[in-house]
Amino acid sequence: MNTAAIETQENYLNAGYGLKSWLLTKDHKRIAILYLITVTIFFFIGGIFASLIRIELLTPQGDLVSSETYNKLFTMHGIAMIFFFLIPSIPATLGNFFLPMMIGARDLAFPRINLLSWYLLVIGGAFALFAMLAGGVDTGWTFYTPYSTTYSNSWVIATALGIFVSGFSSILTGLNFIVTVHRMRAPGMTWFRMPLFVWANYATAVIQVLGTPVVAVTLVLVFCERVFHIGIFDPNLGGDPVLFQHMFWFYSHPAVYIMVLPAMGVISEIISVFSRKPIFGYHFVAFSSMAIAVIGFLVWGHHLFVSTQSVYAGLVFSFLSYFVAIPSAVKVFNWTATLYKGSISFATPMLYAFGFIGLFTIGGLTGLFVASLGFDVHVTDTYFVVAHFHYVMVGGTIMAFLGGLHYWWPKMTGRMYPENWAKLSAAIIFVGFNLTFFPQFILGYMGMPRRYHVYPDEFQVLHVLSTAGASILAIGYLFPMFYFMWSLRYGEVAGANPWGATGLEWKTPSPPPVHNFDEIPVVTHEAYDYSTVVGEGVEVG
Amino acid sequence: MKIPLFPESASNFAPDVDHLLYYLVAVSVFFTVLIFASIFYFAIRYRRRSDNELPKPIHASLVLEIAWSVIPFGLTMVMFAWGANIFFKESRPPKDAMQIYVVAKQWMWKLQHMEGQREINELHIPVGRPVKLTMTSEDAIHSFFVPAFRTKQDVVPGRYSTTWFTATKPGKYHLFCAEYCGTKHSGMTGWIYAMEPQDYQAWLSGGRSFGSLAENGEKLFQDLACGNCHKADGSGRCPSLVGLYGRSVQLADGRFVNADEAYLRESILQPNAKIVAGYQPLMPTFQGQVTEEGVLELIEYIKSLAPPPAGAGTTPAEINVNPGVATAAPSNR
Q1: d(C-alpha A466, C-alpha A417), whole Å
Q2: Are residues B153 and B235 in the same domain?
Q3: Same domain flag for B112 and B256
Q4: Any CB–CB contact under 8 A between A458 and chain B?
Q5: Number of structural domains in chain B
Q6: Which pTM does this prediction carry?
Q7: What is the nearest CA distance from A106 to chain B, expressed in angstroms?
């Protein structure tokens, strides 16, 4: 196939060119591209805040920005990254694009709602951006009361409104996924023939639908107290400040699984394709996603061990937290076992998958540290926790996001990315990431509190290391921006199935036609049956 | 230059937490090495040699799945029990602990010794003696964190939180606010001075004393005219406070509550929240009229109103009624 063939073949990209054809599209693939652009913008906004934070922390004194500005920087870094990048990242882009295709559907169940949910994210994002530009918000992304309701003198309401609105985007995406998976599977696509990415997004959707309304309610209560002085959280008004933490974490802990479950789904796809084997223990990996989604709702109190929560509540939450660790461990072991006697390719997506397993293993294992009561008392609210959740959310989700983006890029655009540049940037990101965040474990155990603008001298060396790592990491993140753009025009033409993958999304041309499949496929095999593709003679790019 | 990579260990809890750390690190290193080594070995050993190779599918092994669920679960239960054990110890201050009161506000720590010494952002304590902190905040949530002691406890407005530790090594240690509390959060730091007992005694007698907490509380009690109603012999319109602290009190709705610091604080600031059985809700609120420090002084004064020791020969004239009767008797109605 040559370039001209891509141009002439009708596909979702050349089906219409005007701005209107994008902004009013109901095609899940185009909406996924809109999401991709949106979350990438927020990723770089959050990244700029992160860079300023790391530069400030080069020295123990507060010499780059004022304390007030610093507090706004880490708050807005968290808000941009969590609510407007990590939560929509994989489900709304890769999930939106590929979940329908992987089950052999022509679109999501509710295409208009899908478009609406993108608009909600944009409107929510606009509120948050407005708050950032108007002067910022300084409550921390956790909005702890009574600071956020009574004492903070910043744009709390505008930001909360932005998160509130974007929450509905998340709810609607989840709803769309659940209905699509239940109702729109192709003939023969039984539940246990679904790719694990679909299982992971299904489990995620359950959390989005059940969890997100709680944070919406919580933000409304913050609004009521801040604006109307109705006493809910501030003890001076008769409220209970710790109640906020329960409500906030009831959503925000499961939200971690909204970020990481789809990532695990991506990794399952990549590991299978690039070792050309079905995922070892498919059923266990599929059910572990569901187990994580359910048990994830029962562990929120482990954020409150030193909050004056009852000692016995602490005991129960610590105990339950270990239950959620097991399904995650099961996944890691099964991925590793899948490699055994496989045919391992070192293409870029696989490097990201290896990176994911490495970083998620460290992130997950340090989760066991902080679930242990006596240990958490010492490290909670220190850099140990900062390092832990960055290993899970950046080391986990972003590695998988980039891995998935490389893996599916040929399908989305019809072009290959430049392999060597991609491998280089994967290596840079892995090294930069570890150099940024590993020193923070040590900092945390030494007692360096998080959200500190000014810090004692003895912590400086480790902070300098961390900032050096962050510079490397930033370069690693910029590379893909450029070569992905480059590949749109100059990349090698990919063909329908450059990796020899089994998913239905690879059984249609790249880029896919508007309705995904000319004929709805009939599924006759389990997922990951490579005899069906290698037998046909694999087209290798 | 020496680069410290490990915090100082200066309290009874520090070795416990460090030992737990060693166990956690050992388990983590084991699994990290196991997984990394397997990935490296498999990736190299089974690297793709030809584009057409098709490995044999291997689907699952129930034995393996059970093994790698159950064995890690067992190891995590050790983490759970170990951590819970330390946490329980941390949540139970010894009875003989020396009491310090802490009032946090944006952005400073105010610390009060029973003997009357007041400190700002500094706390002097003797080594070898348990110290119990009773803490509250005047505004946002703060958190009292001493890395060298491995202890941390949030300081929450509207309630008392407690923590305790025994310093084991004389020295000067960081005190941090660990819960984000606004603009100068990172400036809300101070020092803990752990001193040999004799040095601590010298420090206590050397400093400017503001009168003991109980004495100041008594003055405040008189200034606010609390005694007009809370007569010691129980003849007032409000219950006697003698011997109240630590006792079980029956409320008008039939419940029993323990008269601890939290109950006393609430009864001063929100008197109608819990009405003692047999009394009318007459007391005005003192919210906004008494500072957090004032409340603590009043509590210390109430705590000092000990009942006469059982079997003591003579009873002081003003406490000739068994303080239990005043509240317990009406409940027999």
Answers
A1: 30
A2: no
A3: no
A4: yes
A5: 2
A6: 0.91
A7: 30
Q: What is the 3-state secondary structure (H, E, C) of A468-531?
A: HHHHHHHHHHHHHHHHHHHHHHHCCECCCCCCCCCCHHHHCCCCCCCCCCCCCCCCCCCCCCCH
Give the helix ranges, DSSP H, for B149-244: 197-206, 213-223
CA distance B72 to B35: 13
Instruction: Say which amino acid occupies B11.
Output: S
Would residue B288 count as lying in a domain?
yes
State which residues form the domain around B199: 1-44+61-210
Ranges under pLDDT 70 in chain B: 1-2, 207-209, 308-333
Alpha-carbon gap: B59 to the closest alpha carbon of chain A (Å) = 5
Out of B17, B154, B159, name the one closest to residue A306 (CB): B154
- In this structure, the answer to whether residues B40 and B126 fall within a common structural domain is yes
- How far is it, in rounded angstroms, from Cα A301 to Cα A318? 8
Q: Where are the alpha helices (DSSP H) in A154-281?
A: 156-183, 196-228, 241-275
Dist CA B123 CA B146 (whole Å): 11
- Considering the domain boundaries, does residue B55 fall inside one? no
pLDDT score recorded for residue B108: 95
Q: What is the mean pLDDT of residues A178-203?
A: 97
ipTM value, please give it: 0.93
CATH number of domain containing B202: 2.60.40.420
Pair (B121, B27) in one structural domain: yes
A450 CB neighbours in chain B (<8 A) are 178, 180
Q: Evaluate whether residue B188 is within a structural domain.
A: yes
Residue B56 domain-assigned?
A: no
pLDDT at B287: 84
| Tens-place pLDDT, residues A14-28 | 988 899 999 999 999
Q: Residues of A182-212 as b/e, b for ≥16 C-beta within 10 angstroms?
A: eebbbeebeeebbbbbbbbbbbbbbbbbbbb
| Contact in structure between A207 and A145 (CB atoms under 8 Å) | no
| pLDDT (tens digit per residue) in B211-224 | 888 888 899 998 88
Q: Name the CATH topology of A27-534.
A: Cytochrome C Oxidase; Chain A (1.20.210)
CATH number at residue B324: 1.10.760.10
- Chain B contacts in chain A segment 246-285 (CB below 8 A): 275-278, 280-284
| Beta carbons of B86 and A373 less than 8 Å apart | yes
- Tell me phi and psi for residue A251, to 5 degrees: -90, -45
| Chain A residues 5-64 with a CB less than 8 Å from chain B | 62
Average pLDDT over chain A, rounded to whole? Answer: 94
CA–CA dist B276, B239 (Å, integer) = 8
**CA A78/CA A84 separation, integer angstroms:** 9
Are B202 and B233 contained in the same domain? no
Structure tokens at A155: 């744009």
Do B287 and B202 lie in one domain? The reply is no
